[in-house]
Write a structure and sequence with these properties.
Helix 1 runs antiparallel to helix 3. The longest helix is centred in the N-terminal third of the chain and has 26 residues. By secondary structure, the chain is an all-alpha fold. Helices cover 46% and strands 3% of the residues. The chain contains six helices and two strands. It is globular, with a radius of gyration of 17 Å. A hairpin with a 2-residue loop joins strand 1 and strand 2. The protein has one domain. The two termini are 24 Å apart. It has a two-stranded antiparallel sheet with strand order 1-2.
Length: 200
């Protein structure tokens, strides 16, 4: 879960760098449809989200999350930022926006649940040098399936904005569930969305 996994560079559409669970990426190549590998990559990304929530809980303890706590416990913001980065990457590095309504709902529930299975229609992008051999590659510059940049998104800015919309919606939901202590069954004392907004 180190930062080395975040190092990435592109040569044309080929993405070089280690696939990272903290980015909801897949390292196993799929030349033919194999939903099990996509599901495995999804679960690994979810596991990283659970890790960040657990670390926040450990740092917070029984204290309130207010400005004073944030100043003295800056690691809270570190793990909170990591969590949101990972969460938002999910919508850029998956086919979420292309799922039907039922599968979208199931995926959203699975994203914030410890053991719920996502639908078999879900796909997670492959990161690696065998770009042209994979069914759902990350890629870059409009040649892959990532939606990280409005100018690089295959299908144009509309698809980028759709992924962004879902990322924002789920970010708000993530913080609310964190506040209520209902995220991955890990209880937290006191976290509110407006407190974090003041510190960004």
């Amino acid at each position: 879960m180190g930062r080395f996994q975040d190092l990435r560079f592109h040569i044309g559409p080929v993405d070089f760098g280690s696939p990272s669970t903290s980015h909801f990426e897949r390292g196993k190549l799929i030349s033919k449809e194999n939903p099990k590998i996509h599901i495995e990559a999804f679960k690994n990304g979810r596991k990283y989200l659970m890790f960040t929530v657990k670390r926040i809980k450990e740092i917070v303890g029984k204290k309130k999350i207010d400005n004073q706590t944030l100043q003295s416990k800056k690691k809270i913001l570190f793990y909170f930022g990591r969590a949101l980065h990972t969460l938002q990457d999910f919508f850029s590095h998956s086919n979420y926006i292309d799922l039907n309504k039922e599968d979208k709902n199931l995926t959203s529930l699975a994203l914030f649940s410890r053991n719920l299975e996502p639908p078999k229609t879900l796909k997670i992008a492959y990161t690696g040098v065998f770009f042209f051999f994979d069914e759902f590659p990350h890629g870059a510059f409009g040649f892959g399936e990532n939606k990280d940049n409005p100018h690089w998104t295959k299908g144009g800015e509309k698809r980028f904005l759709e992924a962004k919309k879902y990322a924002v919606e789920h970010t708000i939901k993530f913080v609310r569930l964190l506040n209520m202590g209902k995220l991955y069954n890990l209880t937290l004392n006191y976290i509110t969305l407006h407190k974090f907004k003041k510190n960004f």
